């Protein structure tokens, strides 16, 4: 039996005030993925496909997930007590310039 590829879905449940995570067969959400803005997550050593996934990679992914939820759920922003590389302009529709 071949294992089906999974997609992880991370979301904020406004009713319970909890962050939730689930896995679902990717085939069940593939049409949605194809219409979505898919953002690659750069790893520290992305040139080596079998390289270790570092603590920094995990922190970066967690930060990206939380910031995405803050964009969609403005009521969360005042709860964010973590540092970011740049200040965040939540109203800005454009990507910040890279240094």
What can you see in these coordinates?
The chain has 99 residues and is of the alpha+beta class. It has one domain (6-79). It is 28% helix and 16% strand. It contains two helices and two strands. Strands 1-2 form a two-stranded antiparallel sheet. The longest helix is centred in the middle third of the chain and has 18 residues, at 55-72. The protein starts with 5 loop residues before the first strand and ends in a 27-residue tail after the last helix. The model has no long low-confidence stretch (mean pLDDT 89).
What composes the largest sheet?
Answer: 2 strands, antiparallel
Distance between the termini: 49 Å
* Global mean pLDDT: 89
Global structural class? alpha+beta
Strand content: 15-25%
* H/E series: EEHH
Proportion of helical residues? 25-40%
| Number of β-strand runs | 2
Shape: globular
- Rg, nearest Å: 16 Å
Widest sheet, order of strands = 1-2
**Number of structural units classed as domains:** 1
User: How many individual helices?
Assistant: 2
Low-confidence stretches: none
Helix/strand layout:
Layout: E1 6-13, E2 18-25, H1 26-35, H2 55-72
Antiparallel strand pairs: 1-2
Structure, briefly:
The chain is α+β, with helices and mostly antiparallel strands.
